[in-house]
Amino acid sequence: MWARYGTGWISAGSNRLIMAGKGPVGRRFSVGDARRPQAPCRRAYPYNPAMTDTATPRLTPLRLAAGPATLELLPALGGTILRYDWHGVPVLRPTDGIPEQSRVTACYPLAPYSNRIAGGRLAFGGQSWDIPRTADNHPLPIHGLTWQRPWTVTRHDATHACMEQSYEVPDARTPDAPLPWPFPFHATQTFELDEDALRMTLALRNTGSTEQPAGLGWHPYFPRTPQTRVRAQVSHMWVNDDQSLPQELLDTGGAVGDGLPAAQVDLDNVFNGFAGQASVAWPERGMAVDLEAEPPLGHLVIFTPPGKPHIAVEPVSNMTDAFNRYARDPAPELIELAPGVRQDRATGTLLLAPGAQASATLTLRPRRLR
């Protein structure tokens, strides 16, 4: 199957994304061009508003400043970023006023997992659990818990902030109220702002008595202009089904590294082989931002919703539905990252021994275009 993409073509049959050829822009590339038919969701998964991004009154931003850079944080609203400006220009999607939901902020943390869990069912260690929906606009649990629960600021000054959040597994549950997550953890976020960079570190510690799966990442939104281009060092893209769950790997052929025109693509896909370097450029603004992601952030999600004035470029440790895929693998290849911390090479699943902690760091570097 061939589909027009800008001045090139996508071939689903050969599993390669090819950026070549000449001619007028045809229809936009969509992951739907290479989707496989999938049975609709067979049951509705419960939505638990008590654990989600409901309205939170009287939120006060925590403001950091370093020369031309300013950062506003909302610890009580999921430890989110409200604004990040550089020389008075928004680097991240600007938020007017104080939002009522964490998902409409500029950026939020992803833990203890990124993206969706297939079927609302988690399998790990020979057990399985129903996981409730985490947002009322998604049929499947998505993006973990930390972005929808308040964080506590433990220290801060003019250019630094540290906040923490703990999760304990409820003692009891009923069939109508499944566990938000079956593993206890303690999470920390740190923000370090200087004149030309924002450095963020997210850590998650296993506070339970058994090994647990984990994932880390961020969901930064960026302004979308007619000339916005996204570049990233990635090797393969996962083609989705109609629930945005990965089904088939597609060789990108270097297309994302050459630059994707954000106004002409419709993506909500996870990419493998992320080398930790990505950028978003706005030629008409004379500005760009570089993303520098450190291990274990080996996957990247690119989200370009049609008709919206924003996109997301999300460095994450795990692919979509990673934990269930890991549970089905009879011979996973595990890499030791630190004492008590291992990572599955194929899915990015982090495995934390009791008391062990995994951490990830993302740096945003805004710059002027020459």
Automatic annotation (TrEMBL):
InterPro entries, per database record: Aldose_1/G6P_1-epimerase (IPR008183), Gal_mutarotase_sf_dom (IPR011013), GH-type_carb-bd (IPR014718)
GO molecular function: carbohydrate binding; isomerase activity
Annotated GO biological process: carbohydrate metabolic process
One Pfam family in the UniProt entry: Aldose_epim
Protein name, entry field: Aldose epimerase
